[in-house]
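User: I'm writing a tutorial on reading structure tokens. Could you give me a worked example: one chain, its sequence, then its tokens, then a sentence or two explaining what the tokens reveal?
Assistant: Sure. Here is the example chain.
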Amino acid sequence: MLSVGLSADLLAAGYSSGVLQYDVSALSADLGAALRGTATGAAGVRGLYCTDASNYRVVPDLVVVPADVEDLVAAVQITSQAGAPIVLRGAGTSMAGNAIGGVVIDVSRHLNTIVDIDPVARTAVVEPGVVLTDLTGAAAGYGLTFGADPSSASRATLGGMIANNACGSHSVAWGTTADNLAGLEVLLADGTRMDLGTPAGSVDQWARDLAARPGREGQIHRALQAIAARDSLLISRRFSPMRRRISGYALDRLLPGAGYDVARFLSGTEGTLAVTLRATVNLVELPGATVLLALGFADSVAAADCVPLVLPHGPLTMESINAALVERLPRQVRGAAVAAGLPPGSAWLLVEVGGLDPQDAMGAAQGIISDLQGSDLAVTSSLVTDAGAQAVLWRCRREAAGLATRRSDGAEAWGGWEDAAVPPERLGTYLRELEEILVAHHLSGASYGHFGEGCMHMRMDFDLLSDRGLAHYRSFVEQAADLVVRLGGSVSGEHGDGRARSELLARMYGEDVVAIFQEVKTLWDPAAVLNPHIIADPAPLDASMRHRGHAKDADLATEFSYPQDGGSFAQAQRRCVGVGKCRQTSGGVMCPSYQVTRAEKDSTRGRAHLLWEMLEGDVITDGWRSEEVAGALDLCLSCKGCLSDCPVNVDMATYKSEFLHHHFARRLRPASHYSMGWLPLWSRLATVAPAAVNAVTGSVLAGPLKRVSGVAPERDIPRFAPRSLRSSLRRRPASAHRGPQGAGFGRPTSPGGRVVLWPDSFTSYLAPEVGRAAVAVLEDAGFEVVLPAGPVCCGLTWISTGQLGVAKRVLRRSLRSLQEHLRAGVPVVGLEPSCLAVFRHEGPALLPADHSAQLAAGLTFTLAELLATYAPHWTPPQVGGEALVQTHCHQHAVIGFEADRALMEAAGIRATVPDSGCCGLAGNFGFERGHYEVSKAAGERVLLPAVRAAGAGTVIIADGFSCRTQIGQETDRRPRHLAQVLASALPRP
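And here are its predicted structure tokens:
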């Protein structure tokens, strides 16, 4: 297969400069034979890498994942010799289209070794795939950190940061990535390796020594020095000293007065000149103490006007957020942000101040407040010293790139002009005049950014789906670029030029400087194979736009209604903009399978990209029948962590359920869909003879039974209870008076009223003791507890296996049994978080026209929520003691944990809630054949070691049946539901 290195729309537009032709099949074979890593042109893998975190899409011909640095060298040399374009990629979070096209080489999977940390010299040597938080975590033990800290630090790689000259919130104090580079080991496309350090001693002698080196290395240094000498006046005039000038090639670093620093010159060249093999970076000392000063303003312009007054105080950070972003945070986080200390206002500056100790930091912050009080600015303030509160406020800023992609009314917003920077003293002027351009183009957007360095990030409601919209987009960007240039700024202040801004460099620097960029590109990369058409010889900024294909017009009949996405599955897939928070490996709920495998296809982003490609149809061509998409979704645990923790609320569990429904329509399903998907039915049948069923599943017949039913051989089949919950409640002592048929048990001891206890299938047939404990607690709180009439089920197991037709019938029938209670406003208490989440989340989307489904969403509660809402004056039993608590993923994502935490505190329980994420079992997932290793590894990441380390007197609390099962099967501890823990401390009758 012969390939050209330009996208189809570029060729159609007549843009043919530097077209590269190469034999993809031959190259794939050569790479496969030479590398220890992988090289593939498989559709499923190529689909994962079609886009990054930008508005652009270019289908790669091959994806290479080298096993180590020498593998990377071989991959570059072989690909270059074939004449193929080479695009290096780290986490793929580039927002300007910097890391797509050609042969993509992903260094994030394996080239992630921190080679050395020298705490005396304060340096570290890293491979390009090292994630920033891994480096800062390792350096923190020495009281050190890396100065540049972009908001994507939990997944950003050092190689990518060097390529883009990433900055982050602390650059106002510690500089950009380039400012913190001590040396680079790089590879040229022709195989030349160069070891570039920082100048030492006489700069002139340093430059002469480099120019005297043999071969290509000396040739490059001589030519660079000649360019710097020839054009020194032009460079000094056109290149402002503003630190956030990221655009173009940093030619000013080659001037003798700048030390002829070639390593730092290469930072920001976006992989167009050389490939980073290893980097030596400088580390900075952490301050003894920090305090966060939150300043409130009427709007962002007022906040910008404040910047020149604060900068002389030497803050560590000066970051901006606004009310629009805070409103888009998850409910519990939004409340925590306000409680953490956001002062009155609609826009805020988060100003971090350091000191030798807390008193010193506090004094410095008070100095800023005093100066502002003496100014004519209308500003409010609060000092935040608690580390937890500071973390909450920083989350508002850290997740802004994702939060800003959806407006409060659900409209979509995009990057594309998210990265300009101007001198900080002109930031207010920039925002005022930019607003005029926005109004003229009928645009609006959410803004945030690094105000301390004049860098403004924005997401705007561009129409990137139509020809007319793209014309408006180009017009706006050109006018905005002219404004930035007039104010002495840079069209890129952090994210690089990429496809979004390279075309604008002629407006910023002039054609004569752009000609020098091309000269430098030709010097380093004569064949133009390294990330071509970025910075030099740029492609048009409105070409290769991601949302111009077939996917935007896809009008699919779906089972879920997608109310937050205009009823459109295609619009739901546009939620993922590629920021990649799901790729984090240092905590959090999502994405458990990625945290185990570190493979892009197992991230929420990877799955979302393949679903989008399924709609696009040119790479993934089989629609709902796609085996590539099915393979990527196979290790999705349906934990729903992305629903809450993804900044744009990608709901992969729902998308997976929808996909499975269509994928297996009128086809034979996996055995586990019939066994575990229909578990409520089999459980009800098992109650006829539970002892006999348990005898079979506990005998030598268990092995064949697991094979037939698709259950992992490593798993023990849970045992059925001797009596179901409904049956055991009927057998309660005579002193507990039963109400009417299907009604209740006992009478209230105080005017608490009636509640419905939802008898989910797990509690009813596998753990009825949990239900009995809940009844005891509820009756102690004064409630009359009733059950729905007849057998009921929320349909969870059918939903999770994509059997949505059955799920809707089951849920609709069960809601009818609740109808009378719901219409009367009687609350329903659920004990299994995943079932309760169905009522809160999936139910209304599956049955949008069912009034009972909508009522149930507002009248279903956890035990703790119900007690807090309907029995606020009830005094819980004083349990006391220590507890290790595993929060169920669905509770975290859909329901929240605040009420449970408050209830445990009121009961005297000293609860520790580890940052464990998903337990790993996740309903049917961990029981399915082929999933055990990932399931167990997810649990072993945090939860299972924490359980084993807990003291003998520490109670293990887990409300989810899956969580309790995982802990019970993988440790020697027996966890309990919170209802059981509370009931055990009630006075016995």
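What the tokens reveal: The CA atoms of residues 171 and 578 lie 24 Å apart. The mean pLDDT is 92.
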